[in-house]
Design the sequence.
């Protein structure tokens, strides 16, 4: 009996050792086989917006590169935070990804305590594209350019208002950056999305507003609102006729836009990361992808952008604006 027990114990130990050795091998095989089923990209907004459009465009490319279907799941609410939280809480296996904008990835955490996730709760795969914002005036505002806007608002502190698509959005932060740089006093009017903001601007119920360029462009080109300047450091290639605010010395430090990034849950295994990263970089260099994105007013990101450094710098920039404007939701 003692010898039998010893043999059984030895056999059990050997089996346990073999299983322990097999687990890493099985995990490695699973990663090597990635992807073996459809991938879901979560978008934190309803269909039709700029984030959704970016996600659908990049999903087609990623699906072609990775050889599996890449499907979009729209999980709207809380300025993109609900969808982002879903991805932050998902298994880090590469089958649940996020195409997120600056709002839900970097800004929401700074302006509301309700957001529990942080940038560190994601594996940042890469930047996809960016778009400038545009400061506009209503046709009834009486201004035609940035100089007239600055003069009129400066001489009438507190008399005028500007609108954005909501508290703590990149549009709101851009407006506050303009106020800070121009030493202007205007009241911020938050709207529930772009549609009501557009209606009030075109109806001359609001003097000024901030749009994502792609959203504002149809109304600018139809003459229903007046473009005062774009918000990135240089003019957009889509609208070279619209000056950048930064071209005016008073606003030289205005540099803010909306960007889109591909994210995964934290602790994504490196072999999976490498495959998705390569597929993304190949997509960014696709002429068809670039053509589609540029048609929406987006600038496709360079493949050599260090996404972690980029996110760190963006969070620092947004934090400064949020503190200046005392933004809290």
Sequence:
């Amino acid at each position: 009996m003692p010898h039998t027990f010893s043999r059984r114990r030895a056999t059990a130990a050997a089996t346990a050792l073999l299983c322990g050795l097999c687990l890493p091998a099985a995990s490695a095989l699973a990663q090597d086989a990635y992807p073996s089923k459809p991938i879901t990209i979560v978008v934190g907004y309803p269909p039709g917006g700029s984030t959704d459009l970016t996600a659908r465009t990049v999903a087609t490319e990623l699906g072609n590169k990775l050889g599996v279907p890449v499907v979009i799941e729209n999980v709207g609410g809380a300025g993109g935070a609900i969808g982002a939280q879903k991805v932050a809480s998902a298994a880090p296996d590469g089958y649940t990804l996020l195409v997120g904008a600056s709002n839900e990835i970097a800004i929401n955490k700074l302006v509301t305590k309700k957001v529990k996730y942080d940038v560190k709760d994601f594996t940042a795969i890469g930047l996809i594209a960016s778009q400038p914002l545009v400061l506009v005036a209503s046709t009834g505002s009486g201004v035609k350019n940035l100089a007239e806007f600055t003069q009129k608002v400066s001489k009438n502190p507190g008399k005028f208002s500007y609108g954005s698509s909501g508290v703590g959005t990149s549009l709101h932060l851009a407006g506050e950056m303009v106020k800070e740089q121009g030493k202007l006093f205007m009241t911020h009017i938050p709207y529930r999305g772009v549609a009501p903001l557009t209606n009030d601007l075109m109806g001359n119920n609001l003097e000024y507003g901030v749009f994502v360029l792609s959203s504002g462009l149809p109304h600018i080109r139809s003459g229903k609102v007046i473009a005062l300047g774009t918000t990135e450091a240089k003019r957009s290639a889509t609208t070279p006729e619209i000056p950048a605010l930064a071209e005016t010395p008073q606003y030289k430090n205005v540099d803010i836009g909306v960007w889109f990034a591909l994210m995964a849950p934290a602790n994504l295994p490196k072999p999976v990361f490498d495959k998705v990263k390569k597929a993304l970089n190949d997509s960014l260099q696709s002429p068809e992808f670039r053509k589609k994105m540029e048609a929406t007013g987006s600038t496709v990101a360079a493949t050599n952008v260090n996404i972690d450094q980029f996110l760190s710098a963006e969070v620092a920039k947004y934090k400064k604006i949020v503190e200046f404007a005392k933004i809290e939701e």
Remarks:
- The two ends are 72 Å apart (CA to CA).
- Strands lie at 39-43, 70-74, 96-101, 122-138, 161-164, 187-190, 208-212, 225-230, 257-265, 299-300.
